[in-house]
Design the sequence.
């Protein structure tokens, strides 16, 4: 099944990066070949900043004649204003609608019609917003008028032209995603088609035309029905995050509240585009069978033309410390499950690294504490997983636990059992063997992530966008390696307290 | 140090050196006034690529292996494809092939207790996991290079000396039962499972595990399933990684050559000998309705297969411009997920279309999809559609060879399906040579929107709306007890 223009609510997990060098020195005495190559990732990535502020990372990888391109913007759902939730994600969809020169047959006439469509849509939304007081006749007329305008507009452009051009040139994984922290556009192409990418992306990042806005707003409503309203995991997660954060925007769903989405306007979209997709927010990453100098020239030629645009000062209401446990019940027609979250700092805080390790100790693999105790021995859970760093990582976030209960046990019993395991973490330091094991696992993850152009492009661009420095992953090794069992116990004691937690429980009745 | 690594390091060094020079120059270049070119007028250098060829060998016991070296990262990966799948499950024991694979993995071996096995693999950061499908089970192994010999040893023990520990079997059964209980919680998963059951009705592929079939399964059933299916001649291995071909071969021979098991697979009949179309409605109180509709389609490698790949691409799997996506999603805003799928297997194929839409839109959406398919059946595809699909398929072909692991796994899958080694090369030629008349004849012969299996999952109110427009829909009740 295709799920295009997908929304991603989870962050990319902190990529456990431990070069094997230190590990091998400690445990085997001699560095291997990879220890040298692993270190060299640091040297192989070329980076530069363009005059308009765009950051560029290039990594040559000549395994096959293909190349992956990632463009990320340091702006996401967290940057929306109240009442306009879902704007970042809808914008990401609208970025596939073509440009002044892609899909256009008569751009001057189109502009006129789009302006009429915007006016009519605004009037329709104003009337709809009156709810029971709305004039039904007027709504009917405005809908007819809008449909007629859309029909006339349809004659003036080629729909879905960006996707067609990419497809016919052999592109794969043409997609985009929106998270709390950032918006991402990515595609992989045969290596000889790099210029096509530069042509299309530099154009749509500066000259998008928001065609088919109201139809796409309906598409996103369907996406919400599919991912959140019909899905127990989506339901639980949305309500859980909304309960865990009182004032910080991380409490809002990336896809937006249904009522907000249904009133988003073209004007909202145009304004949000201008500042979020400004060059100084943009990180371009290219990984694959390219020549660095050539691709650099291409990027400078095409993306250097994008004018500098200002961003408004971004103020975020910070989440005040939680001063008592929050518990909510989510009624839904599904078997019982739960979510637990504890507030904690985001990366690059030293505590964030510690929670990466705690996450793995609790729930990584069949020998993890949760699996062994709750799934295997006590038999009360079907699944239990810990996730460090939700809903995003630009601001303080949550260490979260998700669990599904196993019949005939009840979810409340599972919550108590999980709590007992958290207490164990606070009482006694983890064993050296456990700590070594999870450090090994995080290392292996990092190595494995380097086996594709996409994996590398995603990883490099993620940290560059989030922290302004992709080298976070290079330094990850030493930051993780020096962590001791006592530090983990200490972090557990500081953050995993009852007063600092939110529990959301899904029940049928 | 392997023989391949040294030159690469030198190349990287040289490239880095050259770039430093070029970079310092390019900073002084000023961007000249520049107008965006017409994308259609861009020109491209030809793509040159000679993908690595797998090395193949077969042990005297029938165990076949494909290998490609890859020294980029210090890891080794394996895919092992086994002729075992849910379609082979005996009636009343549905779920046994999946449980056999999962308890082989979790239930220990004659040399290693279950818990020790889990802990050892986790400590090595290695994974060995099975994935059981309808017609085959695919095992995936990931190991760091330094631990590969030990991990391969464990892997071969799982196959040759599984313990099937009773407590791990109980755990496996309990977890599978919980998964079955939770199936209706997830409308998408539930709808597609039930669609498959209806599609394959009357064939072993259409049987689903229930709480009672899982309860029925004993250790002796796992031993029997293992005995019949897990024999060297019933599997094909693909390996790629940071290991010399000769060394890998030596290790594999040592691990598997003494395995003398003989399989005894009971053949399963091909589906759709008598296909009975029908329209079914499954009630779940949910705000979104799921529509899935499907029919038999050409088998993989048949003459009609190539033409039908184009037809499916244009109908609903070829991106935003494909007809179902364009009309249902882009033009009408009726769905986020919509399109078509074509699953071609060695002996048969299935074509289907799907959409997820709010309850009130379900009748319209179903009609739109059926009209699109009917139109292609009657009118055929335009030359423009066909050219676009061909270009997309041929230009993206390179992504079939994106990594040595992908190439070697692909080759093993072709061998498993008894397709020729050069199937992909032939595929490319066949697609290139396809004539519009042939494609449209296939569309006319194969597509049968009126004779499909259609399943709609939606709420009670939606059922009445569907019945108003499509009186043939029958409500079905499903029980997994």
Sequence:
């Amino acid at each position: 099944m295709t799920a295009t223009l997908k929304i991603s609510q989870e962050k990319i997990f902190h990529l456990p990066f431990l070069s094997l060098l230190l590990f091998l020195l400690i445990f085997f005495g001699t560095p291997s070949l990879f220890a040298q190559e692993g270190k060299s990732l640091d040297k192989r990535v070329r980076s530069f900043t363009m005059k308009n502020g765009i950051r560029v990372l290039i990594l040559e990888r000549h395994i096959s004649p293909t190349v992956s391109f990632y463009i990320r913007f340091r702006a996401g759902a967290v940057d929306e204003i109240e009442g306009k939730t879902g704007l970042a994600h809808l914008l990401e969809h609208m970025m596939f609608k073509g440009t002044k020169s892609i899909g256009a047959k008569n751009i001057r006439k189109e502009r006129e019609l789009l302006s009429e469509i915007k006016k009519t849509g605004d009037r329709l939304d104003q009337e709809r917003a009156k709810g029971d007081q709305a004039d039904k006749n007027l709504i009917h007329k405005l809908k007819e008028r809008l449909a007629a305008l859309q029909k006339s507009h349809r004659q003036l452009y080629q729909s879905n032209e960006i996707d067609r051009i990419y497809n016919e040139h052999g592109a794969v994984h043409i997609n985009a995603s929106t998270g709390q922290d950032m918006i991402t556009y990515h595609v992989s192409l045969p290596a000889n088609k790099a210029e096509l990418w530069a042509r299309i992306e530099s154009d749509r990042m500066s000259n998008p035309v928001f065609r088919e806005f109201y139809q796409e707003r309906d598409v996103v409503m369907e996406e919400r029905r599919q991912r959140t309203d019909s899905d127990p995991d989506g339901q639980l997660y949305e309500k859980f995050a909304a309960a865990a954060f009182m004032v910080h925007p991380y409490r809002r769903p990336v896809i937006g509240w249904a009522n907000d989405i249904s009133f988003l306007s073209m004007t909202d979209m145009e304004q949000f585009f201008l500042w979020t997709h400004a060059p100084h927010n943009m990180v371009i990453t290219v990984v694959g069978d390219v020549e660095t100098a050539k691709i650099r020239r291409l990027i400078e030629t095409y993306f250097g033309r994008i004018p500098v645009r200002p961003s408004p000062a971004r103020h975020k209401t910070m989440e005040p410390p939680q001063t008592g446990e929050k518990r909510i019940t989510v009624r839904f027609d599904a078997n019982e499950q739960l979510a637990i979250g504890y507030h904690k700092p985001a990366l690059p805080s030293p505590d964030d690294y510690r929670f990466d390790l705690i996450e793995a100790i609790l729930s990584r693999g069949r020998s993890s504490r949760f699996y062994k105790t709750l799934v295997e021995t006590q038999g009360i859970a079907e699944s239990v997983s810990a996730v460090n760093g939700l809903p995003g990582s630009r601001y303080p976030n949550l260490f979260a636990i998700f669990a599904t209960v196993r019949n005939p046990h009840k979810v409340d019993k599972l919550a108590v059992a999980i709590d007992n395991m958290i207490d164990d973490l606070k009482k006694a330091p983890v064993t050296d063997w456990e700590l070594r094991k999870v450090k090994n696992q995080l290392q292996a993850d990092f190595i494995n992530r380097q086996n594709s152009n996409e994996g590398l492009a995603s990883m490099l661009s993620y940290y560059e966008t989030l922290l302004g420095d992709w080298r976070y992953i290079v330094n990850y090794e030493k930051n993780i390696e020096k962590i001791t069992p006592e530090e983990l116990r200490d972090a557990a004691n500081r953050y995993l307290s009852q007063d600092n937690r939110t529990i959301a429980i899904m029940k049928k009745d | 140090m392997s023989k391949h690594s040294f030159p690469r390091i030198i190349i990287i060094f040289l490239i880095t050196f050259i770039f430093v020079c070029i970079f310092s120059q390019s900073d002084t270049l000023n961007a000249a006034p520049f107008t965006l070119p017409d994308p259609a007028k861009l020109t491209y250098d030809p793509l040159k690529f000679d993908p690595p060829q797998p090395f193949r060998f077969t042990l005297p016991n029938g165990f076949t292996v494909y290998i490609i070296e890859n020294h980029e990262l210090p890891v080794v990966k394996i895919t092992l494809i086994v002729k075992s799948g849910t379609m082979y499950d005996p009636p009343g024991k549905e779920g046994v092939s999946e449980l056999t694979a999962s308890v082989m993995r979790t239930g220990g071996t004659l040399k290693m207790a279950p818990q020790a096995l889990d802990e050892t693999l986790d400590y090595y950061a290695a994974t060995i996991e099975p994935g059981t499908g309808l017609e085959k089970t695919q095992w995936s192994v990931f190991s760091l290079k330094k631990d590969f010999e030990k991990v391969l040893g464990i892997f071969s023990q799982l196959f040759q000396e599984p313990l099937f520990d009773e407590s791990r079997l109980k755990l496996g059964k309990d977890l599978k039962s919980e998964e079955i209980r939770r199936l209706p919680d997830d409308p998408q998963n539930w709808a597609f499972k039930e669609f498959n059951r209806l599609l394959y009705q009357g064939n072993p592929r259409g049987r689903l595990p229930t709480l009672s079939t899982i309860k029925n399964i004993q250790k002796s059933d796992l031993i029997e399933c293992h005995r019949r299916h897990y024999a060297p001649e019933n599997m094909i291995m693909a390996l790629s990684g940071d290991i010399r071909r000769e060394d890998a071969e030596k290790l594999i021979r040592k691990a598997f050559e003494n395995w003398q098991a003989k399989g005894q697979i009971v053949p399963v009949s091909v589906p759709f000998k008598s296909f009975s179309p029908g329209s079914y409605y499954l009630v779940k109180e949910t705000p979104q309705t799921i529509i899935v509709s499907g029919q038999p389609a050409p088998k993989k490698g048949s003459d009609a297969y190539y033409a039908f790949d184009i037809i499916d691409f244009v109908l609903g799997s070829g991106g935003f411009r494909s007809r179902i996506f364009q009309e249902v999603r882009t033009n009408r805003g009726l769905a986020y997920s919509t399109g078509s799928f074509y699953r071609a297997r060695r002996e048969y194929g299935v074509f289907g279309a799907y959409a997820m839409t709010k309850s009130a839109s379900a009748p319209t959406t179903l009609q739109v999809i059926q009209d699109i398919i009917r139109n292609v059946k009657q009118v055929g595809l335009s030359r423009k559609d066909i050219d676009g699909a061909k270009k997309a398929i041929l230009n993206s072909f390179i992504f079939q060879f994106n990594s040595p692991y992908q190439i070697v796994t692909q080759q093993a899958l072709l061998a498993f399906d008894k397709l020729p080694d050069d199937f992909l090369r032939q595929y490319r030629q066949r697609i290139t040579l396809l004539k519009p008349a042939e494609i449209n004849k296939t569309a006319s012969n194969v597509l049968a929107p009126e004779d499909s299996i259609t399943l709609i999952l939606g709420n009670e109110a939606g059922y009445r709306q569907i019945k108003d427009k499509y009186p043939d829909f029958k409500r079905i009740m499903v029980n997994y007890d």
